[in-house]
Design brief:
There is one protein chain. The protein is about 40% helix and about 15% strand. The protein has 8 helices and 9 strands. A hairpin with a 2-residue loop joins strand 1 and strand 2. Helix 1 runs parallel beside helix 2, helix 1 crosses helix 7 and helix 4 runs parallel beside helix 5. The model has no long low-confidence stretch (mean pLDDT about 90).
């Protein structure tokens, strides 16, 4: 579509991700899986990584890979693994993915490890584990992919560069008995804002999706009705969110339609942050 500012894709074409190369770190959890499937549906090739080298996590990522390969045989689908707490290992994984796919245009960074425990009972081991997976993990993944995107942009200024961190609304609104988790997620939100400033001049957008109480949230215990679950009563919409409700937001942030959106925290929380 031609406008007074030049050629731009039409509204629908702007959401087309055909040929884009995406890396989803955290494909072994519900949010990462839903977003990965949506990216593939929109046309992207997808590399899927678990956040640990644990056997079950690796198998979960492979199952998502197989699901994409079956539904969209024309897409490249790669399953890999990394321990997001180890920066050097993350860099090796990212370089390998970039080599196999020919580059990385889109990053979905979705490590998520919850701890519901009073602060006085939270051990040093608890705190270190939660901050290492959620905050240090996000930093390691963003840094490694950011390096690849910076190199790609040096060679091609039109190359797409989108980073989307999947975090939690509890990083904005703390709650009792989850201090370590809230602190780690608050760090992810500010990491997003800082990197948006640092990498914005290079054409890399960095945004975050802050999810509220979701059906896959360990804190909800499997019963999502407001009658049975006091936590859900705090949500203005009186229900937990679904992982597929995160995917369209991620697609928008990954697309050309969101090319001028950066440094933003977008809440998918049923209005939770207006109440807390």
């Amino acid at each position: 579509m031609k406008t007074e500012w030049g050629e731009h894709p039409s509204a629908l074409d702007a959401f087309d991700l055909t040929g884009k190369r995406a890396l989803v770190v955290g494909a072994d959890n519900a949010a990462g899986k839903a977003i990965a499937l949506a990216l593939a549906e929109a046309g992207a090739h997808v590399a899927l990584s678990s956040i640990t080298n644990d056997g079950e996590s690796m198998l979960a990522s492979k199952r998502v890979r197989d699901e994409i390969a079956k539904a969209y045989p024309e897409r490249i689908a790669i399953a890999t693994a990394t321990d997001v707490t180890l920066g050097a290992g993350v860099q090796v994984m990212v370089r390998q993915v970039a080599k196999e796919m020919g580059g990385i245009d889109i990053l979905i960074c979705a490590p998520d490890l919850f701890l519901g425990k009073p602060a006085a009972e939270t051990t040093d081991i608890d705190f270190n584990r939660i901050t290492q997976v959620n905050l240090a993990g996000a930093f390691h993944v963003n840094r490694a992919v950011g390096k690849e995107m910076l190199k790609q942009r040096e060679n091609d200024l039109t190359a797409t560069a989108r980073i989307i961190n999947v975090s939690s609304a509890l990083g904005e609104r703390g709650v009792a008995n989850a201090a370590a988790y809230c602190a780690a997620q608050a760090g992810v939100l500010n990491l997003t804002r800082a990197l948006a400033q640092e990498w914005g001049p290079h054409g890399i957008t960095v945004n975050a999706i802050a999810q509220g109480w979701m059906e896959h949230s360990p804190a909800l215990g499997g019963d999502f009705s407001p009658e049975a679950n006091q936590t859900v009563r705090f949500v203005p919409m009186k229900r937990a969110g679904r992982p597929d409700e995160l995917a369209p937001l991620a697609l928008w942030l990954a697309s050309e339609a969101a090319g001028y959106v950066s440094g933003q925290i977008l809440y998918a929380d049923g209005g939770l942050t207006t109440h807390l």
